[in-house]
C-alpha cells in the first residue's frame, strides 16, 4: 500500500528517520547505522541510483550530513509530511 500512495523519496525519508530512532529523547541529530544505498533501495522499493539522488538532494537541503556516518536532522520530517 505504501508503495502505491507514497513517493520513493518520502519512503526513504521515513526509513532514515526510523533507522535513526526519530522521536526518542528529543534528539535533533540522529545517527543512522551504516547502510548501503542498495540496502536502503530494497527497503523502500526503488533503485540504488534513485536513493543516491535523494541522498544528494537531502544533503543539499541540509537535512542530512555524512561525516564518517550518516546524520539525519529531525527537519527531514518535513520531507515526509510535505505534499
Order of helices and strands: HHEHHEEH
Which stretches are low in confidence, meaning pLDDT under 50 for 5 or more residues running? none
What value does the Rg take, in angstroms? 12 Å
- Named at the architecture level, the CATH assignment is Orthogonal Bundle
Identify the CATH homologous superfamily.
Winged helix-like DNA-binding domain superfamily/Winged helix DNA-binding domain
Helix proportion range: 40-55%
CATH class: Mainly Alpha
Write down the overall geometry: globular
State the major sheet. 3 strands, antiparallel
Q: How many helical elements?
A: 5
The share of residues in extended strands comes to 5-15%
Structural class: alpha+beta
Number of domains: 1
Secondary structure tally: strands: 3
How many angstroms does the end-to-end distance come to? 17 Å
- As laid out across the biggest beta sheet, the strand order is 1-3-2
Mean pLDDT: 81
At CATH level 3, the topology is Arc Repressor Mutant, subunit A
Q: What this model shows, in words?
A:
The protein has 5 helices and 3 strands. It has 83 residues and is an alpha+beta fold. The protein has a single domain, classed as Arc Repressor Mutant, subunit A (Orthogonal Bundle). It has a 3-stranded antiparallel beta sheet with strand order 1-3-2. α2 (8-19) packs across α3 (37-44) and α3 (37-44) packs across α4 (48-61). The mean pLDDT is 81.
Amino acid at each position: 500500500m505504501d508503495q502505491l500512495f507514497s513517493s520513493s523519496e518520502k519512503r526513504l525519508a521515513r526509513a532514515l528517520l526510523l533507522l535513526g530512532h526519530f522521536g526518542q529523547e528529543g534528539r535533533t541529530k540522529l545517527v543512522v547505522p551504516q547502510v548501503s544505498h542498495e540496502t536502503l533501495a530494497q527497503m523502500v522499493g526503488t533503485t540504488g541510483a534513485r536513493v543516491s539522488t535523494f541522498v544528494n538532494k537531502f544533503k543539499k537541503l541540509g537535512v542530512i550530513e555524512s561525516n564518517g556516518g550518516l546524520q539525519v536532522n529531525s527537519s527531514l520530517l518535513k520531507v515526509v509530511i510535505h505534499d
